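Researcher: Structure prediction, please.
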Amino acid sequence: MEKIYGGKHFNKIVSQNDIMVFVENGFDIKILKKLNKKILPLYQKFFDFLEYAECNKENKLFLKMKQDKGNTENWCDFENALYELIPTGDLDELNEHLFELQTLFSMFLSNIVTTEVIKEIGSNATKYNWAINSLENILGDLDTDSLQNMDFSKSVIKNGHHQLFVFKFYNFNYTSLLDNYIDLDRQQFKPVIYKTSSNNFHFQINNDTLFSNVILDIVHPNGVQSIPKSILFGYERKGYNEFTDKDRFFIKSYWTRADIKYSSDFLNTKLFIIYGMSIGKSDSWWWEHIFYSLKENGSELIIYNYTLDIEEDKEQIKQRFINNSIGENANVSTSVLNKRECETFSVNNVLEGLLW
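Model: Predicted structure follows.
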């Protein structure tokens, strides 16, 4: 829910800056690589896991991935496989097969993201102040020209000290790696520092420090590894009937109640950041809401594009965002984003990104 803070908890607040950050598998892969872990949470690896695990060999989703292997770019994406199977499949059977993959995926992740790994990330995050450094330097990857052309940064610089930065992280990973990385623990953060000011945060911008306030929230809209039944796999489809359409049980925004729980979060957001996400169709509810916020509310977007093999230029990334937000048939060119999208990065251009 959109919140405007102030009153007795904060004094002298001159501006509230809401920042929504969307994070997916690219982050988990990068942090595990940073810790020199050999096994990574890739869909290809999950397919290998299914072949050796006690997976029902008649599982339609598993069979679809096996059939598409080597023939389709996204062969291992079983959410895409689910979408393709829906029109001709037995929905009750598909639901049963999907639930099996949920449980096995939780087991797969538990073999990678162990208690030891979580402990190591938490210890390093505290030791090296990863969380506070990442938040205070959230614009640190932008060059001077980008900062000067960005309305958000110009507004922040103009407003000076005593601002409130509200960060809301939407963790689309099922793991808690990001949570352990970005949590403001008591070793690196103190909620109250000064007797006469509520400032507890030192925002860095343009070689300057702004004495300000911070609020951090982390949400897992698609479930968590430790609760296998909460893991949400599915797709998006516009215009579905939530009472009668049989495939509604496979639509993500139906299960998350996204319209009710999250749509108001976009109203006051000034800056969106997408990190390590494929920006695929299965999360189109989110991209559509970002798109219309950029178009109608004057907000801005930074995309950190994570790819393993495919080199994409900025225009391709922007067009993919548009296609998977409002649809390929909308015939909207990337020019509509040019004033509101400040910068995109390929993985090679991200030195550390949020990883300080």
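Model: DSSP finds 14 helices and seven strands in the chain.
Researcher: Thanks, that helps.
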